[in-house]
Design goal:
The structure is a homodimer of 275-residue chains. By secondary structure, chain A is an alpha/beta fold. Chain A has ten helices and twelve strands. In chain A, the strands form three sheets. Chain A has a five-stranded parallel beta sheet with strand order 3-2-4-1-5, with helices on both faces. At the A-B interface, helix 1, helix 5, helix 6 and helix 10 of A face helix 1, helix 5, helix 6 and helix 10 of B. Chains A, B: Keywords: Methyltransferase, S-adenosyl-L-methionine, Transferase.
Chain lengths: 275, 275
């Protein structure tokens, strides 16, 4: 059997009882380590499970799926995923490959940032499309997500912004070499996200868009979340300009751009996180 | 300490290890029983936890919050909630009340239908606003959610439809009596939802809206899900007209109206659930 197990968001004890039982009995257990990370790290997981884990980086997950699935029709193999297993396309693809090979599979769900984001007090039913904000570089500054924020705000919906994670990215120089070299891992912080969002504002204004037609301005409320579900979780509600100066500590971070008009209960709850 | 603990979606073992440890040590543990239900039922939970639970129905949760929170500043009290604690407004309100009373609180996240819906293979990032479909009666047929489906479809987004749950609803006759009498519990099925959605179509057509301007038609693909996360989980993908004839068994059910154009990977995955 092939098991795809969500680990939730915070620490080792956020695994479900069902998930833990499966992890203990499996012959091989892989820990997917590039679409998300747990605040606690691999060693804490291994200690808690009482077994070793095989780290599954991008190369292994995307090109070594056959290796991971090998023998899963006669043995038990698990792939552990931070959050919920269906949070990333890669994992859906894994199930399809298992299906193709005639390998039986089971999914163990868990919390994902998509529902745990409710911890800031915004109603989950009032979120529009979720967006991803990628790291920009000197030449590549995609901003198509701006239109989605605009659409959500026009419909008085909140926007959850998932922030970029770069783990085991080959350096540009090494791409032409035989031996790959990797950049240090990077996890976008809420302040880095706010900087990029404000840069888009400048561009939109230079295109002649008036302030009242912008998706947001420097004064718009936004909510920064870090390490959701972990005991060190932090939530800050402030203007987007203030968010640039915020420091929410270690990764992972997420940013929410709330709807213009909040429900009174949302208003009251979010106020808890204003400075 | 007041604990708000998500139980996830399937069976007793879907609680997290963290949640289980807290449940075992608490002085009082309430099981919220009117915004959602677990397929397994209260007795199975009590057996698994090795302790008794106090059933918290609508009256207790909405009017007896003070009773539930009583003593939580010196003792440990937990409220268990199916799915994730932030899935319903009522639970957010609970945290605010605890705050007001100076009671420390902790939230234990878990899977909710909002992320577990990904099990049908549709990408979670491509969902628009979630809607709720209420039971209609002879005189009350609200359909404002139709516009949200339309907006989602216009933007090529999927719509998750949460289906009505009626638990411990007083009968109309008993409202004027001293002794309340309650209707049997009802849980909307995907076929009941499809019937109401098709009735809205008739109305829209009678208002002169052309087929190409409708949010969906009888032929639109929809996906029915039942008992997500439980081993008896069922997923069916068919036209909305066919969904009227479907039988997905015991509650809870959810319905998804996918975007018009699916990603190839979504297409491939959803095809697994077509008859």
């Amino acid at each position: 059997m092939f098991y795809l197990i969500g680990l939730g968001l915070g620490d080792p004890k956020d695994v479900t009882v069902k998930g833990l039982e499966i992890i203990k009995k499996c012959d091989r257990v892989y820990l997917e380590s590039y679409t998300s990370i747990l605040t606690c790290g691999q060693t804490a997981l291994e200690e808690f499970y009482g077994r070793s884990l095989i780290l599954a980086d991008r190369e292994l997950v995307e090109q070594g799926a056959d290796d991971i699935l090998a023998g899963a029709n006669t043995h038990d193999v698990a792939l552990l995923v931070v959050g919920d297993p269906f949070g990333a396309t890669t994992h859906t693809d894994f199930i399809l490959r298992a299906k193709e090979k005639g390998i039986p599979f089971q999914v163990v769900h868990n919390a994902s940032i998509l529902n745990a984001a409710g911890c800031c007090g915004l109603q989950l039913y009032s979120f529009g499309e979720t967006i991803s904000i990628p790291y920009w570089d000197d030449t590549w500054k995609p901003d198509s997500f701006y239109d989605k924020i605009k659409m959500n705000r026009d419909n008085n919906l909140h926007t959850l912004c998932l922030l970029d994670i770069k783990v085991k990215e080959p350096t540009l120089e090494s791409l032409t070499k035989k031996k790959r070299e990797y950049m240090p891992p990077r996890f976008m912080s809420v302040n880095e996200a706010a900087v990029q969002l404000l840069e888009i504002l400048k561009k939109k204004r230079s295109e002649g868009i008036a302030d009242e037609d912008l998706a947001y301005t420097e004064k718009s409320l936004c909510i920064g979340l870090s390490r959701v579900g972990h005991e060190s979780q932090q939530i800050v509600a402030c203007s987007m300009l203030e968010m640039v100066q915020s420091d929410l500590g270690a990764p992972l971070h997420s940013l929410i751009i709330p709807a213009e008009k909040l429900h009174p209960l949302e208003e009251e709850y979010v106020a808890l996180f204003k400075k």
